[in-house]
């Protein structure tokens, strides 16, 4: 089990460092070039009650009077020490905001991730085994349609049908109105999770299903499958006893590598369902020009996606001995 | 059958009873709605509930109380203060506060807390403008002195809008866990979702009827859907949705000074630029004849009916119906005949027969800009352009992507702006030539020495009451002023009605004329709300 060797760790750490540096420089540059003036966004309709002198005071509170490069280096210096600064709009440390919001998002993302992964895999294998059949066609049409459906639209449709018309699911939020998250029962939380998680997973299913289908078809046409057929094994038998093991690996990799899309999807889904997670905070930070928070979330999402890919890499080695042995032999 | 026999009858009955009780507790929750009120009125203060950063400047700070208040007729009444007076030189306010006020943690509220609140708000750099205050000082246990750096009759509005925080309990996390002497105290705030408040047992005033308030911070569509599903008791909706009906709820439109108007550059374009390089002036709108004709030609009632679905009223000034509004601002509009005459008298004639008037070779043509995402502003601009075509003025309409784009053009184009506040300082910022071109203040570079004189006199007045007359005179003194009879640097169009749906059983009393703001103003009299079966 020598997957995680020192050189592997060093390489990955270096790559993470490089990614984070580039991401923060790029994000900072983009945000500085953004046409949104955070002070204007903050003052908003109070414009006429606030004197020019007071505006200057707000600018100073946020340190915006300094030139952009200087602000970047101040931010960077603090960031290295683990201080991502104070969110302008939430008036709280960025790390606290991200922490609180991420816990809420985690519920949503985790359930959507498990659902879409499991369902997508099963659908993909079923479609691939029965290539060309009616089942295959239905699954394919479903996947193609869903793959091109924007998640906010999907969310609105589900909301209109299940919450407004049928009244089965809640309209919004992570807990019922008047109930604080600490007092909410597990059932209440799950009840509020159903629609946003369904939105995310219904769409996430498509990619996994299509990918798995292709791999299953390859596996069903492979020599070992042919050998199994020759021994009198049925199609289903070959698929579940032989092909699945070979198909599972790319599916798992894809699933972990899709964390970025999951993150992006949750931004839209959270917006639709007023689900107070990290996605909603991202939108607010963007709209109101909250630079520290936006940078913090960008860095966090970079780490998040990186972690997904890293896990996929490691799992590959753990699950498939050939890769591990291959690397060792190459040395 | 054997299973049933093994369970003793008594135990079965008990199980049934427990089951029934469980069902009952589930059924009780709608009845509880009578002392719990759920509101979806938007405007979550991301800054938190810290008055020193600006919380509570609209409506009621809820958790904190203020020295003074405005009642439903916008008269200034006492709250924490029992006496308040301004010195002869207009530079020192002396305020005495009541002795029975306590914060929700049980500690008494003293002059020290008031002085601390004002001094802190002055330096932290939030949305509270105390630039005119030198310092606040407790001169007794219940007496505070406020020293101003210059005379400012609008300073009294800080007494109305700034909630008092406890010196001992105010710190970094105060904004999330406020402690105050207001009618309610916070139970919990989950950012982006909801805020729960309950009645403050230490409140010195009348006990509010509703023991618990739940504010939902969902976006417009979600709030509306929640109201349709019967989940909220009060919901704010855009005017366009107010024509709908929600079962079990009634429409509650509230008049406001949330206004929209056309701002005109009042100086010619001579290629001048501001310090940050923004172009100044417009050769067409610099002519008062153009601006007056537009004011007279526009049919404001039609705008209210057509654009606001009837939920609004015509606007003739920036402060319609407020104590400092001059009734003389109201003009006879929708009068194309008079408008044409004003243009003709001003030398504007259509000599080339293209339907647009000219003067000295200059066509009566300009662009109206607005933020493209604001549909009401867009419709207003389009409707005005249509109305102006009738009198030979060609107004082009252009939506801009952001306020930043508008910022670049605000001194040289006609802009659809919206303001409206319970503080007359707004009038000063909109029209004083001392403010011309500073930020968004007086963006059209309007100058009239007489108006400046009145505005300065209003600021320097001996009291708020004495200042009212000067504010009115700045609008129109019988000869000159900034209203449509005078120099007309603006064409005010409409005041929106803020539209709420409220539960049929809910009585919210008389709502104030609301300022430009998000939902919170309706909570100004929330202590007086009751539930009627």
UniProtKB/TrEMBL annotation, chain A:
<keyword id="KW-1003">Cell membrane</keyword>
<dbReference type="InterPro" id="IPR000515">
    <property type="entry name" value="MetI-like"/>
</dbReference>
<feature type="transmembrane region" description="Helical">
    <location>
        <begin position="190"/>
        <end position="210"/>
    </location>
</feature>
<feature type="transmembrane region" description="Helical">
    <location>
        <begin position="141"/>
        <end position="162"/>
    </location>
</feature>
<keyword id="KW-0813">Transport</keyword>
<keyword id="KW-1133">Transmembrane helix</keyword>
<comment type="similarity">
    <text>Belongs to the binding-protein-dependent transport system permease family.</text>
</comment>
<keyword id="KW-0812">Transmembrane</keyword>
<protein>
    <submittedName>
        <fullName>ABC transporter permease</fullName>
    </submittedName>
</protein>
<keyword id="KW-0472">Membrane</keyword>
<feature type="transmembrane region" description="Helical">
    <location>
        <begin position="106"/>
        <end position="129"/>
    </location>
</feature>
<feature type="transmembrane region" description="Helical">
    <location>
        <begin position="16"/>
        <end position="36"/>
    </location>
</feature>
<dbReference type="InterPro" id="IPR035906">
    <property type="entry name" value="MetI-like_sf"/>
</dbReference>
<dbReference type="Pfam" id="PF00528">
    <property type="entry name" value="BPD_transp_1"/>
</dbReference>
<feature type="transmembrane region" description="Helical">
    <location>
        <begin position="293"/>
        <end position="312"/>
    </location>
</feature>
<feature type="domain" description="ABC transmembrane type-1">
    <location>
        <begin position="102"/>
        <end position="316"/>
    </location>
</feature>
UniProtKB/TrEMBL annotation, chain B:
<protein>
    <submittedName>
        <fullName>ABC transporter substrate-binding protein</fullName>
    </submittedName>
</protein>
<comment type="similarity">
    <text>Belongs to the bacterial solute-binding protein 5 family.</text>
</comment>
<keyword id="KW-0732">Signal</keyword>
<dbReference type="InterPro" id="IPR030678">
    <property type="entry name" value="Peptide/Ni-bd"/>
</dbReference>
<dbReference type="InterPro" id="IPR039424">
    <property type="entry name" value="SBP_5"/>
</dbReference>
<dbReference type="InterPro" id="IPR000914">
    <property type="entry name" value="SBP_5_dom"/>
</dbReference>
<dbReference type="Pfam" id="PF00496">
    <property type="entry name" value="SBP_bac_5"/>
</dbReference>
<keyword id="KW-0813">Transport</keyword>
<feature type="domain" description="Solute-binding protein family 5">
    <location>
        <begin position="76"/>
        <end position="433"/>
    </location>
</feature>
């Amino acid at each position: 089990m020598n997957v995680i060797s020192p050189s592997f760790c060093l390489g990955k750490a270096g790559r993470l460092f490089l990614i984070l540096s580039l991401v923060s420089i790029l994000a900072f540059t983009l945000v500085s070039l953004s046409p949104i003036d955070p002070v204007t966004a903050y003052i908003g309709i109070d414009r006429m009650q606030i004197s020019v002198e007071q505006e200057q005071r707000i600018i100073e509170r946020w340190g915006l009077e300094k030139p952009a490069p200087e602000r970047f280096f101040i931010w960077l210096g603090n960031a290295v020490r683990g201080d991502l600064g104070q969110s302008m709009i939430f008036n709280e440390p960025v790390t606290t905001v991200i922490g609180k919001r991420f816990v809420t998002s985690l519920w949503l993302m985790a359930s959507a991730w498990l659902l879409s992964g499991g369902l997508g895999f099963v659908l993909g294998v079923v479609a691939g085994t029965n290539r060309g059949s009616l089942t295959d066609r239905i699954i394919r049409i479903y996947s193609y349609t869903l793959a091109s459906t924007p998640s906010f639209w999907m969310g609105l449709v589900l909301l209109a049908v299940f919450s407004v018309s049928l009244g089965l699911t809640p309209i919004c939020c992570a807990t019922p109105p008047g109930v604080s998250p600490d007092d909410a029962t597990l059932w209440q939380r799950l009840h509020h999770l159903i629609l946003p998680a369904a939105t995310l997973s219904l769409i996430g299913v498509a990619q996994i299903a299509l990918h798995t289908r292709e791999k299953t078809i390859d596996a069903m046409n492979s020599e070992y499958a042919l050998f199994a057929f020759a021994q009198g094994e049925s199609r289903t038998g070959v698929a579940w006893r032989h092909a699945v093991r070979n198909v599972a690996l790319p599916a798992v990799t894809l699933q972990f590598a899709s964390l970025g899309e999951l993150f992006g999807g949750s931004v839209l889904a959270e917006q639709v369902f007023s689900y107070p997670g990290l996605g909603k905070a991202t939108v607010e930070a963007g709209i109101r020009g909250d630079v520290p928070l936006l940078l913090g979330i960008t860095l966090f999402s970079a780490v998040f996606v990186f972690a997904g890919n890293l896990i996929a890499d490691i799992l590959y080695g753990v699950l498939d001995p050939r890769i591990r042995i291959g690397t060792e032999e190459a040395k | 059958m054997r299973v049933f026999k093994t369970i003793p009858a008594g135990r079965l009955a008990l199980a049934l009873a427990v089951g029934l009780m469980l069902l009952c507790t589930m059924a009780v929750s709608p009845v509880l709605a009578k002392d719990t009120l759920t509101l979806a009125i938007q405007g979550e203060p991301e800054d938190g509930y810290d008055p020193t950063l600006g919380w509570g400047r609209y409506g009621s700070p809820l958790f904190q109380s203020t020295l003074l208040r405005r009642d439903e007729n916008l008269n200034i009444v006492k709250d924490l203060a029992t006496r308040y007076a301004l010195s002869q030189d207009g530079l020192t306010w002396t305020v005495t506060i009541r002795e029975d006020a306590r914060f929700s943690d049980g500690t008494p509220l003293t002059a020290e807390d008031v002085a601390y609140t004002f001094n802190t708000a002055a330096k932290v750099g939030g949305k509270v403008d105390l630039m005119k205050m030198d310092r606040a000082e407790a001169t007794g246990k219940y007496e505070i002195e406020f020293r101003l750096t210059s005379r400012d009759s609008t300073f009294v509005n800080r007494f109305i809008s700034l909630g008092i925080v406890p010196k001992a309990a105010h710190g970094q996390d105060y904004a999330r866990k406020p402690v105050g002497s207001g009618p309610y105290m916070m139970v919990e705030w989950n950012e982006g979702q909801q805020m729960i408040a309950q009645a403050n047992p230490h409140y010195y005033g009348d006990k509010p009827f509703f023991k618990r308030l739940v504010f939902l911070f969902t976006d417009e569509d979600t709030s509306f859907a929640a109201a349709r599903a019967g989940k909220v008791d009060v919901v704010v909706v855009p005017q366009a949705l107010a024509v709908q009906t929600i079962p079990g709820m009634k429409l509650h439109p509230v008049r406001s000074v949330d206004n929209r108007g056309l701002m005109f550059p009042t100086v010619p374009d001579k290629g001048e630029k501001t310090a940050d390089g923004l172009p100044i002036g417009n050769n067409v709108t610099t002519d008062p004849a153009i601006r007056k004709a537009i004011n007279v030609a526009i049919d404001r009632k039609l705008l209210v009916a057509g654009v606001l679905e009837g939920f609004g009223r015509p606007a003739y000034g920036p402060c319609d119906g407020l104590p400092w509004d001059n009734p003389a601002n109201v003009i006879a509009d929708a009068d194309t005949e008079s408008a044409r005459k004003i243009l003709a008298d001003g030398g504007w004639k259509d000599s080339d027969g293209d339907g647009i008037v000219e003067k000295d070779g200059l066509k009566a043509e300009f662009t109206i800009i607005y933020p493209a995402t604001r549909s009401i502003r867009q419709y207003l601009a389009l409707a005005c352009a249509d109305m102006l075509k009738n009198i030979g003025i060609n107004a082009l309409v252009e939506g801009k992507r952001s306020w930043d784009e508008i910022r670049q053009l605000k001194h040289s184009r006609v802009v659809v702006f919206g303001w409206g506040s319970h503080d007359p300082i707004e009038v000063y910022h909109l029209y004083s030539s001392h403010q011309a071109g500073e930020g968004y203040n007086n963006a059209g570079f309007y100058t009239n020495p007489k108006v400046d004189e009145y505005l300065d006199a209003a600021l320097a007045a001996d009291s708020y009451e004495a200042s009212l007359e000067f504010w009115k005179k700045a609008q129109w003194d019988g000869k000159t002023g900034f209203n449509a009879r005078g120099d007309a640097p603006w064409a005010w169009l409409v005041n929106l009605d803020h539209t709420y749906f409220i539960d049929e059983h809910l009585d919210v009393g008389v709502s104030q004329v609301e300022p430009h703001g998000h939902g919170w103003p309706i909570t100004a009299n929330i202590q007086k709300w009751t539930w009627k079966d």
